[in-house]
Amino acid sequence: AEPLLAVQDLRVEFRTRDGVATVLNGVSYEVAAGETLAVLGESGSGKSVTAQTVMGILDTPPGVVTGGSVRFRGEELLTASPRRRREVRGAGMAMIFQDALSALNPVFTVGFQIEEQLRVRRGMSRRDARARAVELLDQVRIPNPRGRVRQYPHEFSGGMRQRAMIAMSLALDPELLIADEPTTALDVTVQAQIMDLLAEIQRERGMGLVLITHDLGVVAQVADRIAVMYAGRVVEQADARSLYRTPAHPYTGALLDSLPRLDQKGTALNTIKGLPPSLLAIPDGCPFHPRCPRAQDRCRAEVPARHEPAPGRASACHFAEEVLAGG
Ligand code: SF4
Ligand code: MG
Questions:
Q1: What pLDDT, in 10s, does the model give residues 165-221?
Q2: Ligand 1 surroundings by CB, under 6 angstroms
Q3: Which fold has domain 5-81+206-261+268-324?
Q4: In Å, what is the CA distance from 212 to each residue of 42, 123, 246, 272, 296?
Q5: Hey, which of 272, 282, 286 would you mutate to test ligand 1's pocket, going by the most ligand atoms within 8 Å of its Cβ?
Q6: Which one in 78, 201, 256, 290 has a CA-CA gap of 20 to 30 Å to 173?
Q7: Each residue of 239-252: pLDDT tens digit?
Q8: Neighbours of 314 (CB within 10 A)
Q9: What is the pTM of this model?
Q10: ipTM for the complex?
């Protein structure tokens, strides 16, 4: 069956004053209907740029899509008309962000912002739209939705604002929700609540969910599959359980090693040495080689092709088979 979303070999450059930065260098991932895919990577790995390109909200310029394909329910979006893209946005796929304040308009009430979509896009009456907005706030567990619907974003706490943004993103019943670091700005308790809420909504609606995060710990409970990004590529993709148990790429292994473990309270974390490469000067060969404990001559010379070291596992490491075997 055709996946809900299929991103294939996506290439994006940023033309900057300092040169051309290859921000996406052949990104591929798929999301099935009703599935949660976590897209994991450090900042600058290309996770947000991929999502923005999928949504059709990439700033162009400086961003330029130089190749690849984004299909939603089998329909190519990269060559679709701006009008068609606007139709898909909101109703087909919606996106939420780390910073709810930038997504919500400060001069309108939260209710108005939900209702406006319903009136413009669905032709709903003022009254029906209000009733639906109250329902949506209730669905995202905002207490006293009838009162809250009349309030402005600044009257909401950080966590409640995040819930309001989620409600707004659900107004047109999207089949796919893309959440870009939705909990990063929140404290740990609220983070867990928002993550639970997203998982619950995903289940109830049977929606596809793309969860973008730099924190492997955050998605452990909710992801069906995980795509790990590094320097503008997906370097590993697998179902969540297998990836946690036996990573097939040294970068994933390093991310797992850096997770705090419940059975080792208080011990120092093994953080990954070095920094991700500048996208203006991606190293030859494997882009991870300057930080990789397993790097060999071949890694410095030859770009590793993405391949399947085992059924259902994808890795872009020359030695994926050995890594997978725990060697
Ligand atoms: Fe490390 Fe080489 Fe594999 Fe790259 S290809 S991840 S440098 S072992
Ligand atoms: Mg980002």
A1: 999 999 999 999 999 999 888 888 888 899 999 999 999 999 999 999 988 888 878
A2: 249-250, 286, 288-289, 292, 294-295, 299, 304, 317-319
A3: Rossmann fold (3.40.50)
A4: 10, 32, 21, 20, 31
A5: 286
A6: 78
A7: 999 999 999 999 99
A8: 21
A9: 0.94
A10: 0.96
